[in-house]
User: Fold Bifunctional protein FolD from Terribacillus aidingensis.
Amino acid sequence: MTAELIYGKELAATIRRELKQDAAALREQDILPHLTVVLVGDDPASRSYVRGKEKASAEIGISSDLIELPSSTTQTELLDLIQRLNLDAKVNGILVQLPLPAHIDEQAVINSIDPEKDVDGFHPANVGKMMLGEDTYYPCTPYGIIQMLKSKDVEIAGKTAVIVGRSNIVGKPIGQLLLNEHATVIHTHSRTPDLRHFTKQADILIVAVGREHMIKAEDIREGAIVIDVGVNRNAAGKLTGDVDFENTKEVASIITPVPGGVGPMTITMLMLNTIKAARRQAAAVV
Ligand SMILES: NC(=O)C1=CN([C@@H]2O[C@H](COP(=O)(O)OP(=O)(O)OC[C@H]3O[C@@H](n4cnc5c(N)ncnc54)[C@H](OP(=O)(O)O)[C@@H]3O)[C@@H](O)[C@H]2O)C=CC1
Ligand SMILES: Nc1nc(=O)c2c([nH]1)NC[C@@H]1CN(c3ccc(C(=O)N[C@@H](CCC(=O)O)C(=O)O)cc3)C=[N+]21
Ligand SMILES: [Mg+2]
Assistant:
């Protein structure tokens, strides 16, 4: 069997066309969605993702600006900037690119963002709402993965979903969203002994570690659905996922490629959250 691919890039293009219409309809009501991205330091990978966000914003008709700060920026300076953005009525969404330099407390920065402008869905108030199954800004990568599964009419309810990785931005929230969709969820991580014992049980396997070829054909069950979140730059300078794609696709029923899989959907869900933010904030004004 050769797996069917989910081309995130194509699905993203379809959703972006819809978002472009949504943005045009909002413009008719004088609502102009605006995203501010804050980038501290000069990590080349971060710079590349930020470019992707600017490109998508322009394509959809979301205005965006990028605030670039040196890696020497203090935590107080960053908190002051966020306070200013929180109070700026034309800023609907705030994204602080992670990781931040080591001298800055990441969680303190996330906590300082107005939850109504937290289009990443990382603020504790939004994480809590997600856990309670309430409507909120869902973290972009997990939200994008759910859209990818739904685009293939994958039945999530009752399935065993195994997640490799437990970061706050991917591993933990994708487990929660899959649980909200009634999957049986197993979280694995670096302290999990005999990882394969668990990955072999997965009907749906989500891999978010950051290590090339971390998951191979022999780690999965025949017919499993494999979602590869990893984005690694290998020794040859090539972009690869965490899954040994060439061999694993012969065993899986559905698989996502890297590049062109989860990544473009992450950015698209950020755009969706920004439009939602503009709509919500306009409705809140009396
Ligand atoms: N496509 C996209 O849109 C996105 C892609 N990414 C990519 O996804 C990958 C993961 O990102 P992120 O979640 O931020 O990464 P983190 O580094 O924050 O987390 C990595 C996770 O992998 C776990 N891990 C490490 N080694 C092993 C191992 N040997 N066995 C099992 N688990 C292991 C860690 O466990 P422990 O907690 O025990 O340390 C940790 O939970 C990266 O390649 C990143 O670039 C990230 C965000 C979005
Ligand atoms: N506050 C914050 N929010 C994030 O959502 C966030 C973050 N910080 N820090 C870093 C991670 C990583 N991330 C990616 C987004 C898009 C691609 C993406 O579009 N990838 C393309 C390839 C891009 C390329 O060519 O480099 C693809 O997979 O096809 C990848 C990774 C968002 N993150
Ligand atoms: Mg506005």
